[in-house]
Design brief:
With 321 residues, the chain is an alpha/beta fold. The chain folds into two domains: 237 residues, 3-Layer(aba) Sandwich (Malonyl-Coenzyme A Acyl Carrier Protein, domain 2); 71 residues, Alpha-Beta Plaits (2-Layer Sandwich). Helix content is 50%, strand content 15%. It has 14 helices and eight strands. It has a four-stranded parallel beta sheet with strand order 2-1-7-8, sandwiched between helices. It has a four-stranded antiparallel beta sheet with strand order 4-5-3-6. β4 and β5 form a beta hairpin. α2 packs across α7, α5 runs antiparallel to α7 and α8 crosses α9. The longest helix is centred in the first third of the chain and has 21 residues. It is globular, with a radius of gyration of 19 Å.
Length: 321
């Protein structure tokens, strides 16, 4: 029986996240306290537990907050004997998957995600952007809708596919007027509907290339260790053949401004015989993607202590079956 850890991305955060686990789980407490110590200017623990929501939603705060939650839960699972065969993450979650694979330690994870979040915030400043989930239309048709919108636009037009989340859900992002034009074209091509998303920027589009350049420079200061298990990457939807530090860093630079291929990741895991997915992060976003894409997979999501205990129990039961 094969198992995968999948780490939630930005958007899953909520005030109160990790608070119950913090009081009941030493690994989560140690992780959140460490992040709070390393990044005192963000007041992460207070913001995670008490808010305000507007502060927690800021990209530069959200990313290390989610990473501190994920690292503590990961350590708890390992301590309980849960051993994944693969790891992956949704956008930001990819960094936690690399922590799970032993590529870097918690301190590096927290500093990296804080830097990434701040760089993405800066790249989004002043852009009249829009992000929208197109439902019920496949990738090629969404590309056609984006192309139609660009043809109606001008030399500054940008609308691109930012996320392939699951079967029947494709997210587009870019300049507001261009995204709205693409939404109109998508509906004309048969989309069920288009839902605007509340996000902090036009993530995973070419608008984020300045953030990618900053990450490239920052990565030169950081040592990446070898992987202890395969990570399935956002940009390619599959593991690397060359697991060198240089290749991992290249993919992370690309990831911030290219399409997140979660649908491909899920289908790859299914093809490799993964039967159990443990979603690490507040909420059940990835569980929803799995139900729509790989219905035969069992997925357990972890937000609190009861969820963590259920994940360990489910893993042991399926392993013994």
């Amino acid at each position: 029986m094969k198992t995968a850890f999948l780490f939630a991305g930005q958007g899953s955060q909520c005030v109160g996240m990790g608070q119950a686990l913090y009081g009941e789980n030493g690994f989560v407490k140690e992780s959140i306290d460490l992040a709070d110590k390393i990044l005192p200017e963000l007041a992460l623990k207070t913001t995670m537990f008490e808010g305000p929501d507007e502060t927690l939603k800021k990209t530069g705060t959200t990313q290390p907050a989610l990473a501190s939650f994920a690292a503590g839960v990961t350590d708890s699972l390992y301590d309980a004997g849960v051993k994944p065969d693969f790891a992956a993450g949704l956008s930001l979650g990819e960094y936690s998957s690399l922590y799970a694979a032993g590529v870097f330690d918690k301190e590096t994870l927290f500093k990296l995600t804080a830097f990434r979040g701040a760089a993405m915030e800066q790249a989004a400043e002043g852009i009249p952007f829009r992000m929208s989930a197109v439902l019920g239309l496949e990738e090629d048709k969404v590309k056609e809708a984006c192309k139609a919108a660009l043809e109606k636009g001008d030399e500054e037009s940008i609308v691109e596919i930012s996320n392939l989340n699951s079967t029947g859900q494709v997210v587009i992002a870019g300049r507001e007027q261009d995204v709205m034009a693409a939404e109109e074209a998508a509906v004309a091509l048969g989309a069920k509907k288009c839902m605007p998303l509340k996000v902090g920027g036009p993530f995973h589009t070419s608008y984020m290339k300045p953030a990618g350049e900053k990450l490239k420079d920052y990565f030169e200061q950081i040592n990446f260790d070898g992987m202890k298990l395969p990570v399935v990457f956002n940009v390619t939807g599959k593991p690397l053949e060359d697991n060198s530090a240089g290749e991992i860093k290249k993919l992370l630079v690309r990831q911030v401004s290219e399409t997140v291929r979660m649908t491909d990741i899920l289908k790859f895991l299914e093809s490799e015989g993964v039967k159990l997915v443990i979603e690490i992060g507040p909420g059940k976003t990835i569980a929803g993607f799995i139900r729509r894409t790989c219905a035969d997979m069992t997925v357990v999501s972890i937000s609190d202590t009861a969820d963590l205990e259920n994940a360990v129990r489910t893993y042991n039961e399926m392993k013994e079956a």
